[in-house]
Write a structure and sequence with these properties.
Elements (H helix, E strand, L loop, with lengths): L8 E5 L4 H12 L3 E6 L6 H12 L5 E5 L5 H15 L4 E6 L14 H25 L2 E11 L11 H20 L5 E8 L5 H4 L4 H11 L8 H12 L10 E4 L7
Parallel strand pairs: 1-2, 1-4, 2-3, 4-5, 5-6, 6-7
């Protein structure tokens, strides 16, 4: 396999499972080194570290930090460690894959629930993008990629806080695409179809969502993490340099009906 990203780095926010982990695995197979920032419990860590070690077997470097992405001091520590590890390399991709939000129905949803969901699932992308730009770590042709969902434009039960965050995330990505273009940075959203992940399983009625998506899909199946990871890879390729400020549906055509 030709390792087209050899020597470059991806910073992945929330890459310990699901779409983020699948993207890490895909990029690593093509030579991209990985810096993953995640937040998990001690019980979860052994399986996560085993998954990260398997990624290293592709012959790339992988450094991981089990920290809070909202903590500015910890963000600075991560970037300092990354600067040391990266040497003369540069960050080709900043991938936002944080799925930490409150899933409550409206009567039980508090203002604080919405605020914290917005911070983790939307504004954290801006914080890290701005910090990477300021640090000079971005490559001359870098990509910012974020995962959004249908909830950004439609109402889904128990999803109000996440819907607000996804809508905000898309707005932030559009602005990054416009205002960071002079620095050689492209920013896009991937709107993945319904995917059977740990994050999806937290949504009440997730089984029904999966079945409904499968029925609507022209190929008769739901989206997989690997489907989404493939598009992350494509957006990081040189040939994708003219894709900027858009939302790409990755659902096999489920959105058609």
């Amino acid at each position: 396999m030709v390792k087209i990203f050899e020597g470059s780095w991806a910073v992945v926010l929330g890459g310990s499972s699901g779409l983020g982990l699948a993207a890490i695995q895909k990029l690593a197979r093509h030579g991209m080194n990985i810096c993953v920032v995640h937040r998990n419990t001690r019980v979860e860590l052994p399986a996560i570290q085993a998954a990260f070690e398997a990624v290293r077997q592709a012959g790339v470097e992988l450094i991981s930090f089990n920290v809070d992405v909202l903590n500015a001091a910890q963000r600075d520590e991560v970037l300092q460690a990354l600067q040391t590890a990266i040497g003369k390399g540069k960050v080709r991709c900043l991938l936002h894959s944080i799925a930490r939000g409150n899933l409550k129905e409206i009567p039980q949803l508090q203002r604080e629930d919405i605020d914290i969901t917005l911070q983790y699932m939307a504004t954290s992308l801006y914080d890290w993008a701005a910090a990477l730009l300021k640090s000079g770590l971005f490559a001359a042709d870098a990509r910012i990629i974020a995962f959004t969902s249908d909830g950004s434009y439609k109402a889904i039960p128990n999803y109000a806080a996440v819907s607000a965050a996804k809508a905000a995330l898309e707005a932030i990505v559009r602005s990054l695409a416009l205002e960071m273009a002079p620095y050689g940075i492209r920013a896009n959203c991937i709107r993945a179809g319904v995917t059977d992940t740990v994050a999806l399983r937290r949504i009440p009625g997730s089984d029904a969502l999966l079945e409904y998506s499968k029925e609507r899909n022209p190929f008769g199946r739901t989206t997989t993490p690997e489907d989404v990871a493939n598009v992350v890879y494509l957006l990081c390729c040189d040939e994708a340099a003219w894709i900027n400020g858009t939302i790409i549906p990755v659902d096999g055509g489920t959105h058609l009906q």
